[in-house]
Write a structure and sequence with these properties.
Order of helices and strands: HEHEEHEHHHEHEEHEEHEEHEHHHH
Distance between the termini: 84 Å
Largest sheet: 7 strands, parallel
Bound molecules: nicotinamide-adenine-dinucleotide, 2'deoxy-thymidine-5'-diphospho-alpha-D-glucose
Structural class: alpha/beta
Strand order of the largest sheet: 3-2-1-4-5-6-10
Radius of gyration: 22 Å
Shape: globular
Oligomer: single chain
Number of strands: 12
Helix content: 40-55%
């Protein structure tokens, strides 16, 4: 074979290989939402997932036990702030999309120690964007047209609502109130800038409060389930009337898939569950579900454990999402009702005591002591 012909055949082969690849790079895929997303992705598509996760206190390989050993799941323990690592993963695996979940995600921790939030949420997102831009610029035309960078963000960037205010929509001005929310807002702006300035094909989602299997028990719902089960006080912040709009995690994952496949480049999509509930109502419902599914030997109602404690500083009063855009443009709506989703979630925590013990490490116990020991009862 002549040199020219073999070079031509190599080029054709390269084009076929690059345009037929459909791997995605997921960051933070050992966390709560990321692991639910990766498991569903591997179960429902033929595409491989490279899962880059630092395994901080919130990341857990046990979340991914059901996909362990699958050749389509390539787990890499590493930091999104590590530009060399991110660049080399992109070159090696040549993904057609990045789905960016990795973050520090707990508001209370951002109040006590904001540094890690600035690093991972802002610097980490910048590193990913910058490496994605380099990689994307070097792709052939077909792959460049297909590539997407999906940034998973939060409704907290919009700040707080009064009782009668309309729900957050995509044009609501940003007004983040906690260090967590401010770091996510900064990352959203950086995503916007990379799209506007360099043409990187980005998508951003801003979602409300998630709940479901594998949520780390520092967040309201799993913390209350476990404390109720163990007869411990249920620490409700302030007057318990703060409102959140709850979404079952599988519905968040289906929304992300819809945005990834049909979302318009440069757009943001709000995702919510149409399930606004006051915290105290969530907690009493959990008490009743635990009473029903695991009756207390003394037959005392778990509601007796509710303890009002000192409020979270700067506590946002109400979040609510107007999800009209994603519903109208991408035909997405949540499948789960809050009551059925919460019942499934309580059952999951009752049935997965080994998982619970595996995540309640010494560092977890230290966190609980740090956040709650000094919080006076009110
Ligand atoms: P999580 O805290 O459960 O998981 C975060 C994951 O990111 C962990 O696996 C952790 O190990 C990993 N990680 C942290 N720092 C990293 C780093 N430097 N490099 C690589 N990996 C790192 O979070 P979650 O609740 O699953 O949230 C996922 C994403 O969704 C976040 O971006 C969050 O802001 C967003 N979000 C969460 C909610 C919610 O209710 N939980 C709602 C809306 C948006
Ligand atoms: O709105 C989306 C956000 O939802 C995500 O971006 C965050 O990553 C996620 O952590 C969540 O933030 P919240 O602060 O709303 O979630 P959290 O579970 O910490 O608290 C929910 C509500 O319950 C909030 O009003 C504070 C209250 N709360 C929380 C804890 C942990 C209590 O009353 N007692 C508690 O012990």
């Amino acid at each position: 074979m002549s040199g020219d012909l073999s070079m031509f055949l190599c080029h054709i082969l390269n084009c076929v290989i690059t345009t037929s690849l459909n791997t995605i790079l997921v960051t933070g895929g050992a966390g709560f939402i990321g692991s639910n997303f990766v498991m569903e992705w591997l179960q429902t598509t033929d595409s491989a997932a490279v899962n880059l996760d630092l395994l901080t206190y919130a990341g857990n390989r046990g979340n991914l036990a059901s996909v362990d050993g699958k050749s389509k799941h390539i787990f890499v323990q590493g930091d999104v702030c590590d530009a060399e690592l991110v660049g080399s993963l992109l070159q090696k695996h040549r993904p057609c999309a990045i789905v960016h979940f990795a973050a520090e995600s707990h508001v209370d921790r951002s109040i006590i120690a904001p540094d890690a939030f600035l690093r991972t949420n802002i610097q980490g997102t910048f590193v990913l964007l910058d490496q994605a831009k380099k990689y994307w610029s070097g792709l052939n035309e077909a792959d460049r047209a297909r590539f997407r960078f999906l940034h998973v963000s939060t409704d907290e960037v919009y700040g707080t609502l009064g009782q009668d205010d309309p729900a957050f929509c995509e044009t609501t001005p940003y007004a983040p109130n906690s260090p967590y929310a401010a770091s996510k807002a900064a990352s959203d702006h950086m995503v916007r800038a990379y799209q506007h300035t360099f043409g990187l094909p980005t998508l951003t989602t801003n979602c409300s409060n998630n709940y479901g299997p594998f949520q780390f028990p520092e967040k309201l719902i799993p913390l209350m389930i476990l404390n109720a089960l163990e007869g411990k006080p249920l620490p409700v912040y302030g007057d318990g009337k703060n409102v959140r709009d709850w979404l079952y995690v599988a519905d968040h994952c289906s929304a992300i898939r819809a945005v990834l496949s049909h979302g318009a480049i440069g757009e943001t999509y709000n995702i919510g569950g149409n399930s606004e509930r006051a915290n105290i109502d969530v907690v009493t419902t959990i008490c009743d579900l635990v009473d029903e599914l695991r009756p207390d030997p003394s037959a005392k109602p778990r509601r007796r454990l509710i303890t009002y404690v000192e409020d979270r500083p700067g506590h946002d009063r109400r979040y609510a999402i107007d999800a009209t855009k994603i519903s109208r443009e991408l035909d997405w709506k949540p499948a789960e009702k809050f009551e059925s989703g919460l019942r499934k979630t309580v059952r999951w925590y009752l049935e997965n005591s080994a998982w619970i013990e595996s995540v309640r490490t010494g560092a977890y116990r230290d966190w609980i002591a740090q956040n709650y020991a000094e919080r006076v009862e009110i």
